[in-house]
Structure formats: structure tokens, C-alpha cells
Design a protein that fits this description.
Structural class: alpha+beta
Helix content: 25-40%
Radius of gyration: 21 Å
Number of strands: 25
Strand content: 25-35%
Length: 470
């Protein structure tokens, strides 16, 4: 096993085939349905649908080219070969080095799609021993990529055969499926309430830690397991949930051992190839429903609530400090402060901190500084991570981590994994959390998790015999 990352990753990158076949097709009229249909077709073992800003959907599929990192080792695959290296305890650095080797290969820019597990945060900011042995980072370099924009559909593939498969699917009329199963409203509320009492006790313990001066804020979450039968249908859940939600980003994937259908309320990082970076902390929550008058009343209540304002302000302060570590002096700005953003069944206080990367810093440096999102962890990051390790049973895995799309030119768009249906193996679950401060009450924070779960739970769809339910 080689520990010299530079020649290892150059050899790997030289084995990655370029997207040599590119063709432009007519735009589609329903991009979310089209992207979901591409995912359901199972063109390859691994795929991702990722919705970026402006309602542009990207579909990527393949299985031959990937990079996977654990705490101590990293593995890259291409052209039927495998390359491995030690990470020296810095898996994100090794991961970024592997991807950067793709920059000059093939003559055209490439995109990659992947995820980062929440436990990466322990290695970056807190206690390495809490990281565990599970995969921390996984990325796919696709064999075929389809971009569904408003004015066109772009297909790029490694060869004509892959491009034809995608083009033929796009040309097919939508197949008709039987109506997927839904939970009745009372059963949905039962699912949402799973573990609520235990969660209230966890909130009380976190409040005691905060009042004892151990930390300022902790985002404590609870897991909601879903029944094994009937099986949850991820693609149908994504389609139904995206039509009902108003996310910052959405994604549907079967990648690196996780399945997910998510409607993320915020981004961890948006980095452009020009060096501009931003992050979007959301903290402070009220329910949002069908009654506009009631929504406006709750909005006013949110903007006047001292606990919610304090929670949001400390999140923006920490976001500024994390951006300051990687940005040019004088380039930081808060472009938006305490706006109210509708995100499905809830509305949040939202701010945006922007800057320009300093010389020598790249998007993965910014990701390392900003990950995990403040609004999924707490303040300070180190103390909050330690509190979560004490108070939350089990590992978070994908929840509170990131799903991302990046380019070899230096762009990186990373969505925070919240409001997401998650699956691994034969299990599927939801998870939701709330920001706990010294002013928190168990009752209110428990209700906040219920409000957030209602962004996904009512749209769960089930299929007993559909092969694509996974």
C-alpha cells in the first residue's frame, strides 16, 4: 500500500475516462419527474440526483470510478483497478488530493457527486476516538451525467453507449405505475411522535450542561425508525416530497452504502470556481401551514422571540469566524441577516455570510472549516460535538453531514443533510433535531422536531413488490 499520495492519485486520475460524448437535447417540462425517472431506471449501481440553485437538476450514474475515505485509509477505483493509501489521520486532505488530481485529465472539466458523514466532524474538531471506523467520505465520478435546465437538456457520457442509454430514457414517455402506498394521517403522526418522551429528557440534560457552562448551544436530534414492511420507496418519496417542499437543495441517491431522499433547508458551503464562497446558517424555527394569516403570525412571533434570535445570532457569529479562517482579510460580509425563509412545514431565520478564499486556500479548506454546519451541531463546535456524543445514542452517519456536487475547476456545492429519508442495509429512518440553549424547554424543542419531521413524513411512499423501492 502506497503512502505517497501524489503519484498514487495521478495514476488513478489518468485511468478515469473523460466524458467524451456530449449532446444537447430539448428541455423537459417536468425536471423533477424526469430526474426521478432516470434514477428509477437504475442505469448503474450508484447514482445521485442533485438539485442546485435556480431549479436545475443534475443526474449522475456510474460505479467504476469512486473515492472512499475512512479515518485511516483511502481507496480509489477506476478502470477495474484499486489504489489505496494511508490518510495519516487526515482523510479530508487525502480525499481532496485525490480529486484535485483529476484537474488536468481529459481536457474537459469533470463533476463529482458524494457525501460526508457527520462523524468526520469529530476528526476535524473534537475527539478522534469518537470518529469510528465507518466511511467518512464517498464520491462518485459518473460515467454519465444529465443536466436538466430550463432551456435545454445536456447529456455527457464516457462513450456513445452510455449517452444513448440516457437519451433513450429521456425520449421514452413516462411509465405508469400503480399509486404508491401512503400512511394515513393518524399513522403519520404516530411515526413523528416516536421517541418524543426520551428526547425531552435528552433536551433537559443538554440544558443542564449549557447552564453549567460546558457549551453555549447544542443541536440535539432524535432518530425515527420506519417499519421494515412495507418497504419505503425512495424515488416516489422524493417526487412527492419535492413537489410539496421549498428546499434550498434536494437530492435522491443510492451511493456508497446510503440511500437518501432529502429536501435540505440550507447549504453548508457554496464555492465558485472564481473563489467566492458562502454559507447559509438557518436557526430559529416556527411551524408553517396552509393558513397564510397564521403563518404571518408565527413569522412575527419568530422575529420577536429572544431565544430564537439569540440562537440565530450565535450561529451567524460562528459562521463568520469559520469563514474568516479561510477568506481574504476584508472580504467577509453578511449579505443577508435574519430573513425568514419558508422550508416546507417550517419557516426559519436565515442569514448568509460570504467571502473570497485567501491565496492558497481551496474549496475543501473552506469545507473543513465550515463542516459540520453550525445549525446541526452547536456552539462551540468542539464542545457541542462532545455534548452530542454524550447525549445522543448511536451514530448520526449521513444525518447532519453533507451531500455535495463539485467540479475539478474548484466549485463545491454542499447541502446540509436535514429533512431527509435515509436508508442503509434493510433499515430506513427519519431524524430531526432542535437547537437547545439555556432558555430551551423540552416541550418546545420536542414540538420543533415534530414540525421538521412533517416536511418529510407525510410524503413517505411505500411499495411492497417494486424492485426500485430501494
Amino acid at each position: 500500500m502506497s503512502t505517497d499520495s501524489r503519484p498514487t492519485w495521478e495514476a488513478w486520475a489518468n485511468s478515469v475516462p473523460p466524458l467524451a460524448d456530449a449532446r444537447t437535447l430539448e428541455p423537459c417540462h417536468d425536471p423533477v419527474a424526469t430526474a426521478t425517472r432516470l434514477a428509477r431506471a437504475r442505469l448503474a449501481d450508484q447514482y445521485m440526483v442533485y438539485e442546485t440553485e435556480g431549479g436545475v437538476w443534475h443526474f449522475a450514474a456510474g460505479s467504476a470510478v469512486s473515492v472512499t475515505a475512512h479515518a485511516t485509509g483511502i481507496t480509489a477505483r477506476a478502470a477495474g483497478r484499486t489504489w489505496t493509501a494511508d490518510t495519516g489521520g487526515h482523510p479530508l486532505t487525502a480525499f481532496a488530493a485525490a480529486l484535485s488530481a483529476l484537474r488536468d485529465t481529459g481536457g474537459t472539466g469533470r463533476h463529482f457527486y458524494g457525501w460526508a458523514a457527520f462523524e468526520l466532524a469529530h476528526l476535524l474538531h473534537a475527539d478522534a476516538e469518537a470518529t469510528g471506523d465507518d466511511t467518512l467520505l464517498h464520491v462518485l465520478v459518473p460515467s454519465v451525467e444529465v443536466t436538466l435546465a430550463g432551456d435545454r437538456t445536456l447529456v455527457r457520457a464516457v462513450d456513445e453507449a452510455w449517452a444513448r442509454k440516457a437519451a433513450d430514457l429521456l425520449a421514452e414517455p413516462p411509465a405508469r405505475h400503480g399509486a404508491p402506498g401512503e400512511l394515513p394521517p393518524d399513522r403519520t403522526e404516530e411515526v413523528i411522535a416516536t421517541g418524543a418522551a426520551a428526547y425531552g429528557r435528552t433536551v433537559s440534560r443538554a440544558v443542564a450542561d449549557i447552564r453549567a457552562g460546558l457549551l453555549e448551544k447544542a443541536v440535539v436530534s432524535r432518530k425515527v425508525p420506519l417499519p421494515a414492511e412495507p418497504r419505503v420507496d425512495f424515488s416516489e418519496t422524493y417526487l412527492a416530497g419535492r413537489r410539496a417542499n421549498t428546499p434550498a437543495r434536494s437530492y435522491l441517491m443510492d451511493l456508497g452504502g446510503y440511500r437518501a431522499a432529502g429536501f435540505s433547508p440550507e447549504t453548508v458551503l457554496e464555492a465558485g470556481e472564481d473563489g467566492r464562497v458562502s454559507t447559509q446558517p438557518l436557526a430559529g424555527t416556527r411551524a408553517r401551514g396552509a393558513d397564510p394569516v397564521e403563518n404571518e403570525r408565527r413569522r412575527a412571533e419568530l422575529l420577536a422571540d429572544p431565544k430564537e434570535i439569540h440562537e440565530h445570532a450565535v450561529s451567524v457569529r460562528l459562521a463568520w469566524e469559520e469563514m474568516e479562517a479561510v477568506c481574504r482579510p476584508g472580504s467577509l460580509a453578511v449579505e443577508e441577516f435574519m430573513a425568514v425563509r419558508a422550508r416546507g412545514s417550517v419557516q426559519h431565520l436565515a442569514s448568509r455570510v460570504t467571502g473570497r478564499l485567501r491565496p492558497g486556500a481551496g474549496p475543501w479548506d473552506a469545507f473543513a472549516s465550515l463542516f459540520p454546519a453550525i445549525t446541526a451541531t452547536g456552539v462551540s463546535t468542539r464542545d457541542a460535538l462532545r455534548a452530542l456524543a454524550r447525549h445522543e445514542p448511536g451514530r448520526r452517519g449521513l444525518y447532519g453531514g453533507a451531500v455535495f456536487r463539485g467540479s475539478t475547476g474548484g466549485a463545491l456545492d454542499a447541502a446540509l443533510v436535514l429533512r431527509t429519508l435515509i436508508g442503509a442495509g434493510d433499515e430506513a429512518w427519519l431524524r430531526a433535531g432542535a437547537g437547545v440553549t439555556a432558555q430551551s424547554s423540552p416541550e418546545r424543542e420536542t414540538e420543533e422536531t415534530c414540525e421538521k419531521l412533517r416536511s418529510v413524513a407525510p410524503y413517505l411512499r411505500f411499495a411492497e413488490d417494486r424492485s426500485d423501492a430501494r
